[in-house]
Amino acid sequence: MEKGYKFRIYPTAEQIELIQKTFGCCRFTFNRYLAMRIDIYKADKNTLSYNDCSADLTKLKQELPWLKEVDSTALQSSLQDLDSAYQNFFRRVKKGEKPGFPRFKSKHNHRQSYKSKKVGNNIVVYGNHVRLPKLGFVSAKISRQVDGRILSATVSQNPSGKYFVSFTCTEVETPQYESTGCAIGLDMGIKDLCITSDSQRFTNNKYLAKSQKKLAQLQRRLSRKTKGSKNCDKARIKVARLYERVANQRSDALHKLSAYLVKNYDVICVEDLQVKNMVKNHKLAKSINDVSWGEFVRQLTYKCEWQHKALVKIDKFFPSSQICSYCGTKTPTTKDLSVREWICPECETTHDRDVNAAKNILNEGICMLST
Q: From the CB of residue 331, how many other CB atoms can be counted at a distance below 10 Å?
């Protein structure tokens, strides 16, 4: 099993300079060979393979000696990323999806990264330090033990100016939770992040909405600064730090909730929501993005795989809020979101809209598992 570990690093001034050079060289390599591929295709409808680009890069290093100052595996990874972007583009075209053609990388992007491959012992974790190619030992905040065999290390810089390293490890053994024999259905919401079939409600903390006033104030200050000035950069970093804090709060809450559910239930049933289509409703788009349904389901997916638990996704057209969970009678009038409680006309059972929907999702998920 593969697993990732991410830690913050504290490079020295010399190491920061080399990191920035590596960002620039990887960006140069990606953009150069993307442009070459585009030109060759326009000329004779042909393209370059990864091996062609790699051979040309070896010759290019003789012409441009500054490419030798950075980690060579980082440049190779940049070529592999370009080749993967092309493969994904053609794969989407074949499937009839909207294609995403590879785009040129910009040096004005405040989120930069490069990936180094492990060769020998060039990437090692020692106590509170990590050894990285060309950089040597870098001070780091190692918050947990790195298990398994390291395959690669990705050095990144976020918009607030902090540096991180991410290790991709394989052959990682994950401790297994005890089986509980319990199943649960989840109904996603905005007021509450999710409502369970056993009537538990997990509140949506709305971290972005709570920080909206402070964010507007900082963005207003940023808009008044002269572009390109040091004061403008300082104001930009303050905005980035607030966004980062909101993202960290949201991620922490989702990780705790998803871990709780995976630990206590063997079967988890959720709706297969089309978030990209739902955010087209401009009245709800900000609230939907703030609650992060997609990220929550993503975390449940890989954590269930780690623990060998079952995650069942119900079809998005399943009318979970219109069916009585006791007798199965369908009541179309309950489709209106303003109806929070209703009485079944057949069995006269009083339903809470969200809890009833969660129970229907659970029942449908169990039926899908049994077939």
A: 18
